[in-house]
Structures are given as structure tokens and as C-alpha cells.
Design a protein that fits this description.
This protein is an alpha/beta fold and 432 residues long. Helices cover 46% and strands 17% of the residues. The strands form two sheets. The chain has a seven-stranded mixed β-sheet, sandwiched between helices. It has a five-stranded mixed β-sheet with strand order 1-2-4-3-5. Strand 1 and strand 2 form a beta hairpin. The longest helix is centred in the last third of the chain and has 26 residues.
Length: 432
């Protein structure tokens, strides 16, 4: 009877979510509802998990090329640091919101816990369309943001990395501005840097490579798919690299897309030539000899493996029933909504969740950070070997929970991540 009462109390706690509390992460609460039955979270545990530890909103001036000054808004959210310094990318996007950053920081905390690396989760970004800025304006924007948040980041505190519309060039500016402000060398403050500034071999394609290892592991336990047909939505760094890697590994990549459209060839695309077309003409849609399709049509193609590698919320409750793939490998963050996830699970589609599938990037970021702190430079083979072992181990742990609990892989991954975070909080004395 006591357990029943406790359960009612916790469920009521969910219903009494602080809808007016701007620091509550609503996406997190939606996810926590899904893991409640598996974990029997207490009110104290829920309250700890539903709010980020620290949220920073900064406004800073940037001198533009025409001599004018514009004010920009930036965010940094450090969601949970019980397992170590927080870790997460910097995103430049015109529609970035604080809620987006909170959600992504929460997912980063879970992601680091799922692959069992000693980081918490963070995320940051600036509300800006980087395509409208010159290189000089972009550099001054980056440096202004780092000056505004430099006191809150550091190699033992919070370590940024590249994200949407940011790259190793921008990370080089992050490092340089931080070191100028600090007055000393600190290569471990940021990952995803150029090799000449302490970056790690393998980092530029680590997210895609890690995803390919997870897919290989999944198909081994689910049963391999003969001549597997793959469709990839998004042809940026991650999407292009996963298409290339899977093609090299014997998969048949039949469709790819970017923001301007997509292409389809049932016989299989030559990914090297598609990458060349993207570089020269700016879009895969310009590739000759293939059928033109939309991003929406790509999601409903008759393929074996669907790889959303673009933006969030691409598979929704409205289009989830049209997905024909047997496996969805989430290389974007939150490409499947909570409601769509239920539809896919009910239809027997195996979704390999983002906090497992796309963790290769943060794993190699961790290895870069370790190299920076120790003053070492590892060979590519050592980095890739450790990436493969870490991803393989994480998959087996998640899949084991999936079978034991008879649940989706997403729920299993969330159970694992939340358990590890709460264990760290308990050991620190923050929970009973």
C-alpha cells in the first residue's frame, strides 16, 4: 500500500508540473514520463532532473563590416555536472530558442552517461543566420560570445564543441579568444579543433563513424539485411560521412537529401560523385541522372535503413505511419518526436535513439580532451579503436535493458542514462 501511495504521489507530481516556471525543461519532462515506470523516480529525483543547473543568457555587441554595431543574444546551458565537467556544442541558428538549448543540453547529459564518459551535459548557441555574415563578422561574433561566457567555461568546467553551422575554424577562434582572455594556454577548453591546435585525428567524421558501428551491432542482433538499402536525410558533415561510410561497407545508399531537395537512385548512388556535386553546386539536388525527390518523400521511401541526419522533429505523429524502413538510425538530435516514437514502435520499426546512435562525436571529443590534458597526440588507429570499443559496449548495455524490460531502445537508453546520473548525484550526497 505504501508503494502504491508513493506512486500516486509521484504521478501527481508530474501533473503539477510548474507550467509557469521558465527554468523547467518541458521536453525533459515528456521524456521522464516515459521512464517513470521503469525507474519509479521520487519527487526529489524528478525535481533534480527537470531543471538545468545553470542557464546563461548573454547579449553582446558585434561590429559589422559596414561600421555599424549589432547586438546579438547567446545562450549556454549546463544541465547536469554530477558525472564531470559539462560538455556540449555551440550552435549558430536564426531560430534558436532557450528551450532548444535546454533540450539539447539534457540530451547531452544523457548521451555522455549512456556511453559512460565522465562528462555532464551542456549546450550553447547564438541567435544568428551565419549565412548572412562575412567571415570577419563571423569571427567577431564568435569572439564576442566567448568573451561574454568565458568565466563559465573551462577544461575542468564546461567544454564546448562544434554543432549546427559551426566547425573547426570557429572552434579555433573559441580557443584563441579564451586563451587571450585567460592569459595562458588551455587547449582542453574546446574540442573539434583543427589538428594543428590540438584537435584529434578522426574527430571530423566521428559522429558518422560511431553511428556506423552502432548500426553494425544492431544488425548483428536483429539479423542482417541483405543488400540493405539506405536513405539519408541531411547531407552536411554527418549525413555525407555516414553515406560515404555505409557505401564503403557494402550498403546500398539509394537516396540522400539536403535543405534544397533530394535525389533517388534505386540502383545505388555514387556517394563520392554526389559529394563532389555538393561541393561544386551547393546541393545534392543538382546531381544529374537521379530522380528528384523532396525531403518529405525521402522519409517514406521503401528502404531498409532510414538515417535522419538533419534537424529535429522531422518524423512526427502525422508522417510516422508512412515510414517504411525497418531501422531508423538517429544521427540528428531529436529527429523523431515523442508521439511519432510510439507510432514507430507500434509498427515494429526499430529506432536507434540519438543519445546512442550519434554519440561518436562526443566520444572522440572526450578522447581529444584526454589528449589535451595529458599533452599527448594519439595515432588515428588508437582513437578509432577506442571509439569502436566504447560504442560497442554502450550498444550492448542498452540492448540488454531493451530485452530485459521489453521496451524500445529509446526507453532503454534513457533508463540507462538517468540511472547513471542519479547514481552520481546520490554518491555526491545530493539525493537520499
Amino acid at each position: 500500500m505504501a508503494e502504491i501511495k508513493r506512486g500516486i504521489t509521484v504521478l501527481n507530481r508530474f501533473e503539477r508540473i510548474h507550467v509557469d516556471d521558465e527554468n523547467v525543461c518541458r521536453h525533459c519532462m515528456a521524456q521522464l514520463r516515459r521512464v517513470y515506470k521503469g525507474l519509479e523516480l521520487s519527487p526529489e529525483e524528478l525535481e533534480l532532473l527537470e531543471r538545468p543547473r545553470r542557464t546563461f543568457i548573454v547579449s553582446f555587441p558585434v561590429r559589422m563590416d559596414d561600421g555599424s554595431t549589432r547586438m546579438f543574444t547567446g545562450y549556454r546551458v549546463q544541465y547536469n555536472d554530477a558525472r564531470g565537467p559539462t560538455k556540449g556544442g555551440i550552435r549558430f541558428h536564426p531560430r534558436l530558442t532557450l528551450e532548444d538549448v535546454r533540450n539539447l543540453a539534457y540530451l547531452m547529459a544523457l548521451k555522455c552517461a549512456v556511453v559512460d564518459i565522465p562528462f555532464g551535459g551542456a549546450k550553447g548557441g547564438i541567435i544568428v543566420n551565419p549565412k548572412e555574415l562575412s567571415q570577419g563578422e563571423l569571427e567577431r561574433l564568435t569572439r564576442g560570445y566567448i568573451r561574454a561566457i568565458h568565466g563559465f567555461i573551462g577544461p575542468r568546467k564546461d567544454i564546448p564543441a562544434p554543432d549546427v553551422y559551426t566547425d573547426e575554424r570557429i572552434m579555433a577562434w573559441v580557443l584563441d579568444e579564451y586563451e587571450k582572455t585567460l592569459g595562458k594556454s588551455a587547449p582542453g577548453v574546446v574540442t573539434g579543433k583543427p589538428l594543428a591546435l590540438g584537435g584529434s585525428k578522426g574527430r571530423s567524421y566521428a559522429t558518422a563513424l560511431g553511428g556506423s558501428y552502432i548500426l553494425d551491432e544492431a544488425l548483428q542482433v536483429m539479423g542482417g539485411l541483405e543488400d540493405s538499402r539506405v536513405a539519408v536525410q541531411g547531407f552536411g558533415n554527418v549525413g555525407a560521412n555516414i553515406a560515404r561510410i555505409l557505401k564503403e561497407n557494402g550498403y546500398r545508399v539509394i537516396a540522400v537529401s539536403d535543405s534544397k531537395g533530394g535525389i533517388l537512385d534505386e540502383g545505388g548512388l555514387d556517394i563520392g560523385e554526389v559529394m563532389g556535386c555538393k561541393r561544386e553546386k551547393g546541393s545534392v539536388a543538382a546531381f544529374p541522372g537521379a530522380e528528384k525527390i523532396t525531403n518529405e518523400e525521402l522519409l517514406s521511401l521503401g528502404c531498409d535503413i532510414l538515417v535522419p541526419a538533419a534537424l529535429s522533429d522531422q518524423i512526427t505523429e502525422e508522417n510516422a505511419s508512412m515510414v517504411k524502413a525497418r531501422v531508423v538510425l538517429e544521427l540528428a538530435n531529436s529527429p523523431v518526436t515523442v508521439a511519432a516514437d510510439d507510432v514507430l514502435f507500434g509498427n515494429g520499426v526499430k529506432v536507434i535513439p540519438d543519445i546512442l546512435a550519434n554519440a561518436g562525436g562526443v566520444v572522440v571529443s572526450y578522447l581529444e580532451w584526454v589528449q589535451n590534458l595529458s599533452g599527448e597526440t594519439w595515432r588515428r588507429e588508437r582513437v578509432i579503436g577506442r571509439l569502436k570499443r566504447i560504442m560497442g559496449s554502450a550498444f550492448r548495455e542498452v540492448y540488454g535493458i531493451c530485452r530485459e524490460e521489453e521496451c524500445s531502445m529509446r526507453l532503454a537508453a534513457h533508463l540507462l542514462g538517468v540511472r547513471r546520473i542519479l547514481e552520481a548525484e546520490r554518491l555526491r550526497g545530493n539525493l537520499r
